[in-house]
Specification:
Blueprint: E1 8-13, H1 16-26, E2 30-34, E3 37-42, E4 45-51, H2 52-58, E5 73-77, H3 81-94, E6 97-104, E7 110-116, E8 122-128, H4 133-142
Helix pairs in contact: 1-3
Length: 143
């Protein structure tokens, strides 16, 4: 059996309008939208926004009401070290909070930056050398 494909990430939004405004300002392409849901298409992945109460109901659980600290990150792979810096500036201009300025990576050969959206969902902007095994696997999965 082949490994499952995991490339759709749905963020439970406390304030859907506010989050949508942030992602729209980033210029991410909308592939589907209605009153309570929006999906952005990225290379190899989909990031969706859905009201947290409706997401929790769909999962038959209780919604989280607050955010505190980092629980996960969604990695955004870019094609060059310079693009890490450029995307970080886009995030800053859109109202995101840079939590780690773009720097040469500590745990791999490359460059990275962390940011949080207006509801403290965390992302890492990453460029890694072409021989990085995680990068190789991610690019293979995206094709």
């Amino acid at each position: 059996m082949a490994a499952p494909l995991a490339n759709i990430f749905t963020l439970g939004a406390l304030d859907l309008t506010r989050l949508r405004t942030f992602y729209d300002r980033l210029g991410w392409p909308v592939i589907f939208s209605d009153e309570d849901f929006v999906a952005y298409g990225l290379r190899g992945a989909i990031v969706c926004l859905f009201p947290v109460d409706k997401l929790a109901a769909d999962g038959r659980t209780q919604p989280e009401q607050t955010r505190s600290g980092m629980r996960f990150t969604i990695g955004i792979l870019v094609d060059s070290a310079q693009e890490v810096d450029a995307v970080a500036e886009q995030v800053r201009a859109a109202g995101g909070r840079i939590t780690k300025e773009p720097v040469n990576a500590e745990f791999f050969e490359g460059r990275s930056c962390y940011f949080a959206d207006p509801e403290d969902n965390y992302f890492e902007i990453v460029w890694a050398t072409p021989d990085n095994p995680v990068l190789v696997a991610a690019r293979r999965a995206a094709t």
